[in-house]
Amino acid sequence: MLSLEQRLRMLSSPAGAVDMVLDTDAYNEIDDQFAISYALKSDRLNLRALYAAPFHNLRSSGPGDGMEKSYAEIMKLLALAGEDTPAFKGSQAYLPGEDTPVESAAARDLARRAMDYAPGSPLYVVAIGAITNVASALMMNPAMADRVVIVWLGGHALDWHDTKEFNMMQDVAAARVVYGSGAPVVMLPCMGVVSAFATTGPELTHWLKGKTPLADYLAQQTIDEANTYASGRVWSRPIWDVAAVGWLLNDGGKLMLDKLIPTPIPEYDHHYAFDPRRPLCGYVYHINRDALLADLFAKVTR
Length: 302
Hints:
Blueprint (H helix, E strand, L loop, with lengths): L3 H7 L7 E7 L6 H11 L3 E8 L10 H19 L5 E2 L16 H9 L9 E5 L4 H9 L7 E6 L12 H5 L1 H8 L5 E4 L9 E2 L1 H7 L5 H18 L6 E2 L3 H5 L9 E7 L2 E2 L5 E2 L6 E8 L1 H12 L2
Parallel strand pairs: 1-2, 1-4, 2-3, 4-5, 5-6, 6-12
Antiparallel strand pairs: 7-8, 9-12, 10-11
Helix pairs in contact: 2-3, 4-5, 5-7
């Protein structure tokens, strides 16, 4: 079990280079692609593996199909970026319960890989989709909880009226497993916090178009997506998954602000329960939109 001193240290944004893995439902929408590119192009981040997460919406026929499409999108981005980071297929389904993991190559890799780290030098697990793979790894190997910091974009702000955010509500059981595992968790809530992180067509055209094949892809995908629902109208597009990667680059609070709170309890009725005796977690409550966007654009146009 972690000491309070160890937990506090692990819940502070790292100041130097770190190892990380990224768990992503990359085909779900366009912000995952920005987050993956940001991680790949940030010198201080050693991206050791990518995991495809399940998702189910209009872009997939079910969680397994969403995971397969996400894996294919990860491979497309790696090719565009000229990178060869290992990628692993994740869960074909959401957790059947809080005591039953879903076996996958991603969960097995994370359960094994985490054991190469220690509280003083943890593996950062950045998750930007349903957190099924991470929860499964924790159930398969509970000892990894003291060797990782889990940075998850999921749920909404604590003062929001519910937790019906896509990543959270797909697999509430997985969120409960992760939040109850004892692992240091950093929460990045969507509505009310990270929803402030959005970009626009003119910004994308000015800063990304014509710079690199990867930057061109990111800009055009976002503009095309926005034109499916806002053609001819003013629009901005949240690309909030980027913020989860940005937390690792936030030394000095230059990109966002966070604080410590007792880890909340995600409930199946889509609300949080609270117990002050729970271990502390990190809670991001403000995004410096311009600073984070500037850093993102600088990195992905290298």
